[in-house]
Each structure stands twice: as structure tokens, then as C-alpha cells.
Amino acid sequence: MADRQFLLLSATEPDRGGLVAELTGFIAECGCNVDDSRVVVLGGHAGLMVLVSGTPAALERLVGGLDALRARTGIRAAPRRVAARQTPAGERSSRVDIQATALDHEGIIHALADAVRRHGGNILELESATEAAPMSGEPLLTLRMSVWAPESADEAEVLWRELEQVAEEQGVELAVRRAATSGEPPAAVGAERRRGSRRTG
């Protein structure tokens, strides 16, 4: 399997039934494998990202067949060659999950993401949604991030304190927990923040 290479396919199309089946069927026809994938629907459009592996010849067939895939299904998939990324030993233990809730206003996601960036963290996954808050009906933001924390314990602690400060400034209810490894429960990292909604006006 040493000769296997990797390709990232991405596509954004109006959402409809069958998109994933059509794309993965094409990948299988080319003799390639889906190693990892993400699908999300936002604003009526489906975003698909698929990490594909295969022999050099199989990947060439896949890339060469993308125009035919578009003609047949309408899926416009963009290919990008990537190297296989191995997770360094010990990095699993530094993965943390961040959950945040707040009355929605401009800049919340940027403030949290920028704090992670400034202190050496790396965002692996980010999901957010806005819905009407119970009772008041005001827009309520919920957010979840998975982050690789800095390797240094001191740097990680600085990041947690910075996130707590951002939560204070932005009126965010914030919980930060270390992602569980096999056989152990998630552990709290730093203090869990519970902040009231930011006042406006």
C-alpha cells in the first residue's frame, strides 16, 4: 500500500438527494477509496469534501473523469493533491472541544478563532448555527469547535485564560473540555465559563 497517494475533492452544489451516492459511486468506479469525508448543507447548498486514496493510476483515472462526472450528474468537483498527514504521537491528548452559546452578534466566531490562532492552537472542526432563543425569540448562536491545543502546558493554560476573557467580553457561555481518549471520560480544562447574555442598547 506504500504506493497509494491522496487527493482532496471538494464541491458545492444546490442540495438534492443522491449527491453523496453519485460522488462516492464515481470514486469507487475509478478504483479509489474514501478515507475521510465531510458533508454540510448551508443556505440550501451542499458542501462536500472527500479525502480519496488510490494508486497513482487510479487517481489519474479519477481526475480524468471529472468532466464526465459533471456532465452526468452536475457535480463540479475540484481536485487537489495532498500528502497523507500522520497524527504525531501524543497529539491526541491535546485535542479539546469548545462549546459556546450567546445571543448572536457580529464578531463572536472571529474572537474565539483569533484567540486560538494567537496562542498556537489549530481548529480542526467548527460548527455553528443560529436559531430563535426560547421566550425572547432573539437570535441565539451555538458553536462547537475541536482544537489541537499548544504542546506546552503553559501555552495551553494561556489559551484557556484568553478564551475565558473572550467569553467575558463577548457575553458567551463557554465550556472547554479535553476530548476523551479511548476508555476515559472527557475532562474539564480550566474553569467552565457561564456568562449572562451581553446587554445591548
Average pLDDT, rounded to a whole number, is 84
* Outline type: flat
What's the number of helices?
A: 5
Beta-strand content estimate: 35-45%
Rounded Rg: 21 Å
How much helical structure, as a percent, in the residues? 25-40%
How are strands sequenced across the largest beta sheet?
Answer: 6-7-5-8-9
Structural class: alpha+beta
Please count the beta strands (DSSP E, at least 2 residues each).
Answer: 9
Q: Which keywords apply here?
A:
9 strands; 201 residues; Alpha-Beta Plaits; disordered C terminus; 2 domains; flat; alpha+beta; 28% helix; four-stranded antiparallel beta sheet
What does this structure look like?
The chain has 2 domains: 5-82, Alpha-Beta Plaits, CATH 3.30.70; 92-188, ACT domain (Alpha-Beta Plaits). It has 5 helices and 9 strands. The chain has 201 residues and is of the alpha+beta class. The longest helix is centred in the C-terminal third of the chain and has 18 residues, at 153-170. Helix 4 (108-118) packs antiparallel against helix 5. A hairpin with a 2-residue loop joins strand 2 (33-42) and strand 3. 28% of the residues lie in helices and 36% in strands. The strands form 2 sheets. A 5-stranded antiparallel sheet has the order 6-7-5-8-9, covered by helices on one side.
Helix and strand layout, with pairings?
Blueprint: E1 5-14, H1 19-29, E2 33-42, E3 45-54, H2 56-64, H3 66-73, E4 78-82, E5 95-103, H4 108-118, E6 122-132, E7 139-148, H5 153-170, E8 173-178, E9 187-188
Antiparallel strand pairs: 1-3, 1-4, 2-3, 5-7, 5-8, 6-7, 8-9
